[in-house]
Amino acid sequence: MGTSAKHTVEIGYATGKDIQRHFRRWARSVGVESSPLGRIGPTLADAWARDQLSSTLVPDLPGVLSEMIAAQGPETTICSRSIVLSARVDGRVIGGLVARPQRWLIDGVQPFGVQAQMQTLVRVMKLEIVTVEPEYQRRRIATTMVEYALEVLEKAHVHLVYGSFPADRQLGPFYRCLGFTVLKQGYGISIDGATGAPLAIATEDDERTFARKLGDGPDIDISHPGEAPIIR
After folding, report:
1. Is the pTM above the cut of 0.90?
2. Rounded Cα–Cα distance for residues 195 and 118 (Å)
3. How far apart, in whole angstroms, are the C-alpha atoms of residue 142 and residue 74?
4. CA distances, 77 to each of 60, 74, 91, 101, 217 (Å)
5. Who is most buried in 8, 105, 177, 226, counting CB within 10 A?
C-alpha cells in the first residue's frame, strides 16, 4: 500500500469485476487491445470466478500443476499461474498489472522435453501490462504494483520475469529502477538456465526487452544477435 499527497492508494489482487470492467481499458492504454492479449480479459475473469486465477502461485507446487494440466488443460493451468493486480484510489480502480506464463513459449520448448515445458510454466513469467491513469502517474503507483507482483512471483518459484516495450517509449529508466536489465534492440534473453532449453527470447525489432532474475534463479544471460536460436 502506498500514499499519494491527498489519497490512499491500495494495491491488491484484482477481482473478477475489476477485470470485466477495466481490462479492455488497460489493454488499450498499452497498445495491445487488438492483439490476442487484449482479448483474454473474459478468460481471466472466468478463471477468477472459478477460483482458479493465481491459485498455484504458492510455495508448494510438486504434483499440483501436473495434475491440473492432465485434468483441466494448459490454458486453465496458465491462468492458475497468472497474476492480475489492481490499484485503487478511494475505492476507484485507477491502474492494473498483468503477468502470465506464455503458452507459445511453453509449446516452443516442447522439443526439449516435458521437464523443460514444466520449468517454463513455473519459472518464466512475462510482465504484459502495467498501466496507471494519466492523472495518477509519477506517484510510484506503477512501481508499487510491480514490486508487489515481484514479491508474489518470487515466492511462487519464478526465476525469470521479462517483458518488452516499444523502442520509442522512454521506459528504460522505470524498469532499471526496479532492478531489470534493459536490452538493446535486437538482443534477447537466454532461457537455458531457467528451463534447460537452449533458446533465447527476443521481441520484435521495434521493441526493447527487459528482464530480471528472482530468488535463486540464474543471472540474466543476454543473447547477442545470432548467438542462440531465437523464439518469439
Report:
1. yes
2. 8
3. 30
4. 15, 5, 31, 9, 22
5. 105
